[in-house]
Design brief:
Blueprint (H helix, E strand, L loop, with lengths): L1 E4 L2 H12 L8 E4 L14 H15 L6 E5 H4 L6 H7 L1 E4 L6 H10 L3 E2 L8 E5 L2 E4 L8 E6 L2 E8 L6 E5 L1 E4 L9 H9 L9 H14 L23 H7 L1
Parallel strand pairs: 1-3, 2-3, 5-6
Antiparallel strand pairs: 4-11, 6-7, 7-8, 8-9, 9-10
GO molecular function: ATP binding; ATP hydrolysis activity; DNA binding
Pfam families: UvrB_inter (PF17757)
Protein name: UvrB interaction domain-containing protein
Amino acid sequence: MLLVVSDEAEATQMAEMLKAFVPNPSDVFCLPDRNALPYERLIGDTLTTQRRMQALIAMVERERTPIVICSARALTQLVIPPQELSAALFQLKTAQETDLNMLIEHLYNLGYEPVAEVEEPGQFSHRGGIIDLFPPTLPRPVRVEFFGDEIESIRTFDQETQRSLNTIEQCIIGPAREALPGRGPEAVKELSQLDSRILHKDAEERWQRDLELLGSNAHLKILPSICPICTARPVYWIICHAMVC
């Protein structure tokens, strides 16, 4: 179910109110507006990205019937296509046979950033038979420990102390952000057809640098600002997700 209200403040207030009246409060989501305007060179804050991904992923999970509240502005903003988002989801659970190297490659493909220590949603780290990752669907990061190719345990951990907390049986892993990295090269091909010579010299140089980043492994740095470009055609809005759920 998708409810549209006038602004984000009202959406947040209604979401909190509805949680008191539904059997499962975890199925109520507020889809916040993007901080940046389309194509604006600003990176949205981590919390906003996490909340948006939680709502979008909940709307494509088949076993869930979420209630999502958003503002009229959020309704007009482009989102990742529901079919593409659904196809990108996968589950990790204990005793599951999973190739560690393939999992790492898959995390790269979903836009996760490799770091030494996981602190924010959308990051992962790898040491030996352990992978730490912070899916946007979870309030805390998880530590996945392997024994050979089998997942031996999955535990949440505190990103500040890096200490393990609770053991969980399974978790859903989704994209780190609203545009999959694979869209980068596609965007380069499309944008390269535009005539950048009409731009001011500084703007043209920045444009060319962005194209180089989009075509390389470093394009995650600017991915949020070109999210609409990296959205598959035809374009999709949140209302398309509502039709799926």
